[in-house]
Amino acid sequence: MTDYYFRTEDLKVGYGGRALLENIRIGLGKGEILTLVGPNGAGKSTILKSITRQLKILGGRVVIGEKELSRLTYQELSRKMAVVLTDRVRPELMTCHDIVATGRYPYTGRLGILSREDEAKVDLAMELVKAGELGGRLFTALSDGQKQRILLARAICQEPEILVLDEPTSFLDIKYKLELLDILRRMAKEQEITVVMSLHEIDLAGKVSDAVMPVKAGCVYDYGRPEDILKEEFIRRLYDLDKGSFDPVFGSIELPRPAGEPGTMVISACGRGIPVYRKLQKEGIPFIAGILYENDIDYQLARHLASRVIMEEPFQEISDPVYEEAKDAISKCGRVIYTDIPWGSCNGRLRGLLEEVKSRDDIECVYWKQEFMLADRGL
Amino acid sequence: MTESSFHYENLKRRGRYAAVFIGMILALLVMVVVNINTGTVDISVREIMGILFAGEAEGANDQIIWQIRLPRILMAAILGGALSLSGFLLQVFFNNPIAGPFILGISSGAKMVVALVMIFSLRSAGSMSSYALIGAAFTGSLISVSFVLLVSRRLHDMSALLVAGIMISYICSAVTEFIITFAEDTDIVNLHGWSQGSFSGMNWSNVQVSALIVAAAFLCTFLLSKPIGAYQMGEAYAKSMGVNIRIFRVVLILLSSVFSACVTAFAGPISFVGIAVPRLTKLALQTSRPLIVIPASFLGGAVFCMFSDLAARMAFAPLELNISTVTSVLGAPVVIWMLVHREKEKQ
């Protein structure tokens, strides 16, 4: 128990005395990152507000270091914990430098005048979030993404031992999302800062966190390693996904597959089918994919987008039943789209199948040439 | 590179602060000189100098300078500064640039209780001490503030809060009118001049008392610069920086009430100074750093009120206008401009 830097015991949180979530158990060592995931309105912010003392906890304990949260004075807490909130901040006539400098609040004297070291720390924090050039700009004149970075710099400047962030990546574009998470990761490892945050992007949650805790209204799950938690079936239940899907391997999310009786068969391999699948998905055309080896990259996407995948075990000759299944499917479909396929020693029968299809009159056969597509877009 | 340009920026900012402060102090001096020099009785500059610095007692003029003009000038300066800071504190509290003691009905509340106490004590004791006046005004301010606070819990919209404040102001005015209706004639005369807001009839004991109270409140406000700065980031952030929000908010309200009570007790309700001056000051300084803005707002309020008082005295001399007539004409357009500007910013 004692090697946890931050822990909660049977924490109960909610608004106005009404419990929203109960039995929240968290235990984090120094330098670990915990991410709360779950649908909107599940109570992620409520948990974060409770552990940062913005909300009164309704039961249980929150312990930071050796001390219980409720026993810490605001002053003590401010030297241990910094926050980045979703609250809209609209300070008039404050420059970014002013905002970041408020992070030094717990360390400055009676009148809050910054010392030379304080100034240096402000500059350093701004550099860290790559906002050095924003110093003299008015905060209210920034884009949402820039504001978010400034608020992070403010929190860094506070030199916390634990950093709590409520959806820090909202409003950020991909570049800054990745940069922000990279900064958090580095701070966690290099400075041993413990991080608790909520993220909307489950894909990123898996990539940045040491632990993930799913939250759904009225129900808190045990936290655990991302690879144990972020399973496809579980994510489906957590977010009530009835459309679209989540791929735990790459953490990618996919739109739902086209509905209906498939009239197209896609024959491809080695990732060359992916643009075809995407195109068909966007056009709303249901299709069958095959014959794919289970270790083929095309398979990873086909299983989310295709109505059916005809597949074979890795590195095997294509077996008779699979071959027949594919042939049968092609006859039913009436149209085949095929891509370039590298031919090797074990996919010879697929080549045979394709040749056979090409020679049939009743099957419309389309060759998907990747270069054409690129040329179309002028790339 | 970025660092050096930033520090250059910093230097520029400090230059601006210094320029604004120097400008204000100059304006203050000019206002003092002009105010002493103007009045229905013409007194030459040489004579004034003599009266002020050489102690030449020359009967009536000496009286006019020492007993009428000087206390009035000082009161305008002290109370103007107080009014401006009262507004500033309320703006911080409500996170709303259009909050002010007059518009939120706090001045009216003070006026109501003062009227009550005045009529009662004039009847029984004949006169009121400065402290009793301030005490009454402070009580009235707190009553109004509590109403505003009650309402503001349910209203998060800035304009709705203002409407609520104006309603409270009307209720208090109605009660005051009611009291006046049933008061004796002499009381009404006494009350009427005062309730419209004016710096006339100030004496040295008024100056002493208000200087003492305002100086103490100013010091407290100045020492609150740091948490006020944090609070400008919003309550949640301020809390995370170690501000004890509950105590802080109580102190803000108390200080603001002390300021506005002091003003109302001596000069009656004065409109718009509390909103317009802090706003203009911040714009001139191009910052909202409390450490700078608090003293600057005080100075600005002092200059503004001295100027308004001068205008009230001189515009239609020998008739004297209410001070609020002047401050409204000057301040209300600023407020309207602020509202329009904010609407634009939202889009």
Key descriptive features of the protein:
heterodimer; A: 379 residues; alpha/beta; 6-stranded mixed sheet; 5-stranded parallel sheet; 14 helices; elongated; B: 347 residues; mainly alpha; ABC transporter involved in vitamin B12 uptake, BtuC
Report the uncertain regions of chain A. Answer: none
The number of helices of chain A is 14
The CATH topology of chain B is given as: ABC transporter involved in vitamin B12 uptake, BtuC
Number of helices of chain B: 14
The helix/strand order of chain B is HHHHHHHHHHHHHH
Query: Largest sheet of chain B at a glance?
Result: none
Q: Specify which chain pair forms the largest interface.
A: A-B, 40 and 30 residues
How many beta-strand runs of chain B?
0
Rounded Rg of chain B: 21 Å
Task: Describe the SSE topology.
The complex is a heterodimer of chains A (379) and B (347).
Chain A: E1 6-15, E2 18-28, E3 33-37, H1 44-51, E4 59-64, E5 67-68, H2 74-80, E6 81-84, H3 96-101, H4 116-128, H5 144-157, E7 162-166, H6 174-191, E8 194-198, H7 202-208, E9 211-216, E10 219-220, H8 226-229, H9 232-238, E11 245-247, E12 252-254, E13 264-267, H10 274-283, E14 287-293, H11 297-305, E15 308-312, H12 320-333, E16 335-338, H13 348-359, E17 364-367, H14 370-376
Parallel strand pairs in A: 3-8, 3-9, 6-7, 7-8, 13-14, 13-16, 14-15, 16-17
Antiparallel strand pairs in A: 1-2, 1-4, 4-5, 9-10, 11-12
Chain B: H1 2-37, H2 45-54, H3 60-94, H4 106-124, H5 130-154, H6 158-181, H7 185-195, H8 204-223, H9 225-231, H10 235-240, H11 245-267, H12 273-285, H13 290-314, H14 323-346
